[in-house]
Amino acid sequence: MKPFFTPTPIQQLTETFQHNRFYMKREDLIPLSFGGNKARKAYYFLQDMEQQQANCLVTYGSSSSNHCRVIAAVAAAKGYPCLIISPSSQNTPTMNQRLVETLNAKLIFTPLSQVRDTIQQTIEQLKQDGLRPYFIQGGGHGHNGTQAYVDAYHEIKTTEAEENLIFDMIFHASGTGTTQAGLICGNHLSGDTKKIVGISIARDEENGRPVVLESATSYLENHSQPPLSEDAVIFDDRYRAGGYGKFHEGITEIIKQVFIHEGIALDPTYTGKAYWGMMQYIKEHQIEHQTILFVHTGSNPLFFDQFQKFSYTRSVRDEDHLYRNAAASENGLGSNR
Fold first, then answer.
1. What contacts 275, CB < 8 A, 6 or more positions away?
2. Into which CATH architecture does domain 10-35+143-317 fall?
3. 165-220 pLDDT per residue, tens
4. CATH number of this structure's domain 38-140
5. Which residue from 17, 63, 277, 319 puts its CA 20 to 30 A from 138's CA?
6. How far apart are CA 225 and CA 222, in angstroms?
């Protein structure tokens, strides 16, 4: 089974904060339901599902979940029933949830404390109904998810070779952990020493870092590879803005500026929070003159949930800034923010 996408592009940004060069790997351009890291992982899960001859998808996630949106899209395209277990405490209407409903996935809301039991009951009922359900952990957790980002790391290496680049650091939004685990494993297996920084969008370090480490360690053991060093996992929880789905004006402002200057949509729950966290990390650690890659892990539909917060009222300073950018561009100098 061939992937439904080609390697995603890496785009240089106009950003030059603290004399660093910034690039973005555009996982949001994977051509499946607005793309993202969950779309990349979906290929691997779909391949495994079809090998097992399953004919029904079951997964778990909140109303903001990119994973649930993508799995619902895969199921709809293949004609498979799709059931999504979702915690009732997180049932806030979002664009992702509307898309899930449009794709005819069945949402089953349950108290957070009963999620595990509800998943088991749902799977058993499907079996009794004569279906062969395939369960995907929330966020696409597991070896398939890790493998997806080992492969993505190889794409990064290919771009480096083709463009004569070396990325010193890679930043991304870290949630359930397999995206970060895959990038870390790819770095490890390639013999590289890049700093992979996961900006937590929800979990504190005490709970989040062990999950990433376990995922990476399990993957390497499964492939008979040497273990990681303890300092390979950088899981920074200082930029969570209060937890999952929460954000503040600093995050919405940077989303607005990236959209204006780069033409790229980020969102306040995942990518915008991680991008803002990356900038704080760079400032606090006084990082300068580095080549930095930000992995855009998708979630573009959530950009529109907060679109009204990004209204752009030009101040004199804004107009002057835009004028200087235009003048610099006219003179072939490019932008220098």
1. 171, 254, 255, 258, 266, 294
2. 3-Layer(aba) Sandwich (3.40)
3. 999 999 999 998 999 999 999 999 999 999 999 999 999 999 999 999 999 999 99
4. 3.40.50.1100
5. 277
6. 8
